[in-house]
Amino acid sequence: MKNIVILISGRGSNMEAMIAARDAGQLPVNIAAVIANRPDAKGLETAAAAGIATRCLDHKAFAGREAFDTALAACIDEFAPDLVVLAGFMRILTPDFVRHYEGRLLNIHPSLLPAFPGLHTHQRALDEGVRVHGCTVHFVTAELDHGPVVIQAAVPVLDDDTEDSLSARILKQEHRIYPQAVRWFAEGRLQLDGMKVRVQGEQAEPAALISPVLG
Ligand code: GAR
Question: Is the pTM for the entire model greater than 0.90?
Fold first, then answer.
């Protein structure tokens, strides 16, 4: 069974979705550890309560980005992960860190990338008047919120949406597509082809097109 390490910065609801999928027998992985960069990350308690090893590396205690990322990689590698899962890990990563985990580092972002990288994606989508918004699981490259797309889910933007209502609609989809993407990885079914990801055994379409959900 593949080992995964999950990195969080806060609430950890995507991490919880992975734990729930694992417990339901839908995610055949060993969640070896959950690591946070903030001591007050709520998700650390949730992970510990689920019997998962937890670590906290407070980024504020390090002299700079390189020093933190070096320590973080050392901490992660103690658990010998096949895959590192960024689940609301709100840090810009150094190129060396990204290179070290090339092809085994996934992120979830609350927009249909390449639209709206960065922060406040839901408010920006409302401000721009887009009618469709969503979330993306992608392999990580050195560029922020960028990389080969594994799966996306789309939702409609409704006339009376607020940042909160839109964010809640999308979070539901995040909890659906992230365990799915990790499952594909664990089953060895993801094939990288430049910026394209193909899922073996699914339709012969780029994985990004498999799961647009409206509703
Ligand atoms: C999620 O919405 C995730 O997509 C977002 O942070 C939230 C974390 O929630 N990630 C990013 O914005 C990364 N650029 P969670 O802690 O409840 O999983």
Answer: yes
